[in-house]
C-alpha cells in the first residue's frame, strides 16, 4: 500500500515507517497538519495514518478539511487520547477508524487491511504501457502473455514508471515514488534497480522500454526492438 503517515513524534514515526517499509509498503512521512493536507491533495494514498496531536492543526481538523474537499482516502486516527468523546470526535470528523496509543503493530496492520478492503477508494485498475501490464492490487506483472516475477522494490519502481509513461523522471523523483519520502538510500540505488528491471522486463523480450535520458533520469516508453 501507499501510506501517508502524519506523526510529529520522530521516534514513533520512524518505527512505524520502518515496519511498513519492510513489508513492502511505500510510506510518506510528514509531521504537521499543513504538510498532511498538502501531501493528501497531491498524492494518491491507500490509507492515511493521522495523529491527533500535531503542532499546528489537530488531526480532527485535518480530517474535516479533507472530507470537505471530497477527499475520501481512508483515514485511521492514531492518538493517546482514547476517551469515548475523543473517539466520537474523530469519527464525526470523517475518520474511518481510531487506534489508541500505544498500539500493537500487528493490530495497526490488521486495521489498515480492513480499511483497504472496505474503503471508498476504488482498487486500482491495471496499468498498461505497450504490451507491459501491471496489476497494482494483485502485484502481478506481465509482458504479453508471460508473467514476470519481481521483488517488492522492483515492483514499486516499475509501478512508478508505469504511472508516468513517456515522462522523464529524475532519480530523486523515483526515490520518492518507489521508496517514499522517508527513504535513507542514495540516489544511485535507482540505477541498480533499473538494471534489475531491464534484465527482467526488457532484455528477455528483445525490447527497450526503460530508457536512460542522459543528465536527466529515466523514461518508460512502449518499447522498440532491441
Tally of strands: 11
Which segments are poorly predicted (pLDDT under 50) over 5 or more consecutive residues? none
Q: Helix tally?
A: 8
Strands side by side in the biggest sheet = 2-1-3-4-5
Binned strand content: 15-25%
Distance between the termini: 34 Å
- Helical coverage, percent range: 25-40%
Helix/strand order: EHEHEHEHEHEEEEHHHEE
Largest sheet descriptor: 5 strands, parallel
Mean pLDDT over all positions? 87
Q: Specify the overall morphology.
A: elongated
Describe this entry's structure for a reader:
This protein is 40% helix and 20% strand. It is α/β, with parallel strands linked by helices. It is elongated, with a radius of gyration of 19 Å. The two termini are 34 Å apart. The mean pLDDT is 87.
Short structural description:
The chain is 40% helix and 20% strand.
Amino acid at each position: 500500500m501507499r501510506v501517508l503517515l502524519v506523526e510529529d513524534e520522530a521516534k514513533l514515526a520512524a518505527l512505524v515507517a520502518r515496519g511498513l517499509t519492510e513489508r513492502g509498503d511505500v510510506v510518506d512521512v510528514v509531521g504537521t497538519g499543513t504538510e498532511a493536507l498538502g501531501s493528501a491533495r497531491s498524492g494518491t494514498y491507500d490509507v492515511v495514518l493521522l495523529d491527533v496531536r500535531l503542532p499546528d492543526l489537530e488531526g480532527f481538523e485535518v480530517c474535516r478539511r479533507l472530507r470537505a474537499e471530497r477527499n475520501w482516502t481512508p483515514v485511521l486516527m492514531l492518538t493517546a487520547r482514547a476517551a469515548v468523546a475523543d473517539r466520537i470526535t474523530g469519527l464525526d470528523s470523517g475518520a474511518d477508524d481510531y487506534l489508541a496509543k500505544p498500539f500493537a503493530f500487528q493490530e495497526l496492520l490488521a486495521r489498515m487491511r480492513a480499511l483497504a478492503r472496505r474503503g471508498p477508494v476504488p482498487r486500482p485498475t491495471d496499468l498498461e504501457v505497450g504490451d507491459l501490464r501491471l496489476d497494482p492490487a494483485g502485484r502481478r506483472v506481465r509482458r504479453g502473455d508471460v508473467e514476470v516475477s519481481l521483488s517488492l522494490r522492483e515492483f514499486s519502481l516499475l509501478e512508478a514508471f508505469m504511472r508516468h509513461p513517456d515522462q522523464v523522471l529524475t532519480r530523486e523523483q523515483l526515490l520518492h515514488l518507489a521508496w517514499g519520502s522517508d527513504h535513507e538510500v542514495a540516489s544511485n540505488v535507482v540505477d541498480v534497480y533499473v538494471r534489475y528491471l531491464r534484465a527482467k522486463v526488457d532484455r528477455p523480450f528483445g525490447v527497450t522500454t526503460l530508457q536512460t535520458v542522459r543528465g536527466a533520469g529515466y523514461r518508460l516508453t512502449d518499447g522498440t526492438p532491441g
